[in-house]
Amino acid sequence: RELAAFGAMRDDPEVARCQARESCSEADGRQVLAEMAGRNPGEPGWFQFALEEKASGILVGDCGLRILESDHRLAQIGYTINQACWNRGFASEAVGALTAYAFAVFPIHRVTASVDPRNVASCRVLEKNRFVKEGHFRKSEWFKGEWADDVIYAVLRGDQPAS
Length: 163
Prior knowledge:
single chain, alpha+beta, 6-stranded mixed sheet, 5 helices, 33% strand
């Protein structure tokens, strides 16, 4: 059931518009799950977390934490939310929780996120979570057959409120 929900979410053209993949087959979903099976959060590379709604237990999305191979104090996040769950606060909650987790559990100094500036909702999610827009790179990414802008947001350990 979860695999089908994951594939359907990632296969939605509106969701896939901002993702590197054009589509997500069942085989693609199985590959993601297989890659994550042998990984642990905090290891260099990407680790994906499933996001579910507490009340219903349905998959609302996933978010990833990437510890950089070159310096384990640097991290990147990414997130995908099921279109049926957009505008309900799931992305903001996930970004806040994942960032707080990364700073609390790992010796992370800085977390970044790369976003297409046309994805205004995603930019707002980052800004709500104390991420600062640090750069707007014009036509810097070859993405789905065209040059696209890339905006980099970042938050530092010291930017987080005391717990």
